[in-house]
Amino acid sequence: MDKLFHLKERGTTVSREIIGGITTFLAMAYILAVNPGILSASGMNWGSVFTATAVSAAIATLVMAFIANLPVALAPGLGLNAFFTFSVVMGMGCTWQFALTAVLLEGILFIILSICGIREAIIKSIPEGLKKAVAVGIGLFITIIGLANAGIVSTETGTLIGFVNFNGQHTAAIVAMIGLIITIVLYTLNVPGAILIGIILTTIIGIPFGVTTIPENFKPFSMPETPHLFAFDFSQILTGKFFVVFFTFLFTDLFDTIGTLLGVAEQGNLKDKDGNVLNAKGALLADAIGTVAGACLGTSTVTSFVESSSGVAAGARTGLASVVTAILFLLSLFLSPLFFLIPAAATAPALIFVGYLMMKAVTGIKFDDPTEGIPAFITIITMPFAYSISKGIAFGIISYVIAKCAGKKIKEIPVVTWVLAVIFIADIIFEAVK
User: Which residues are CB-contacts of 412 (< 8 A; sequence separation ≥ 6)?
Assistant: First the structure.
């Protein structure tokens, strides 16, 4: 075991790795309830997505364990699944098969870029402020989805949007608010798996409110449903719409893993002598392989989870912790009926709270520099208010070029950013005249 994962070299033990792996699973297992809930809104089968979520998470996390030897777990990412359902399928009117095809090709390209080392070079060319702004904007986008799913906010309040009255007519909203309070308290007390525990307790609280319904002859254990295997649609891959979807998946996923790796490496001191993340190339490859596997199984983009930092905080330092997490994801396959009981009011607090976690990136944005702050601001507000992650990225890139030109800082604009701005402007013109 020590030869495989270098436990002594990194100052850890088997018991610490097991505890760390369990902690990471508890912290991120909410995705087993949230991801099927979001993707099923696109027309996909809930049980099939549940199976795909668990299996793809296990595959990607095992690859991370054995190729990169890092305590980082992966699963279908929040934000990316929201873009899949609410922007691509419901917003653009595309099929979920169309969206899965974009995810597949994005993953294949990422495998190539990761092997060639190009992915790291692309990362360095994108402005740092926009990377952070994308995370913040997605966080707010997810938060609004959570608030709406629970019925906490409504357009029927006499204003553009507002909180409902917490009375007997809005029991789901009441349950969701109770769940949010529980999650806040648990997280503040540093309870491992605070988000998952919050979902479980909220689901139980929802029973007397009539929000959680238990079917007759309920059985907590079952065989997993068959996933949507290879459900692709290649008929539109040469269209402009496909390019926009493909690039948005590509751009968003590009930064999730990098940001997570940097955070986990800093927390666990998993860096080489030059301050770079240990085995970064292998970690990026695990992310890409997970995305391809996820698409083939029928789920949105698989990415590294920032909740892995909870396992690192518990002592995890090697891929052994990732092996433990992967095994737990596989075991969860036989508990899908329990996850199916969870109502939207119980997962909503998780979505809202993840919005808080993603909001932390805002502190790294240089708002005192208008050439940095304004594009970041536009990116952040566009995503939730336009209800579109892709539009937030597009307007953020365009405004960045404009701001830098106006501030006489043209030399600070990377070539790749220029190219992206031209592509996005062309897309806006195309949409306006068609």
Answer: 371, 404
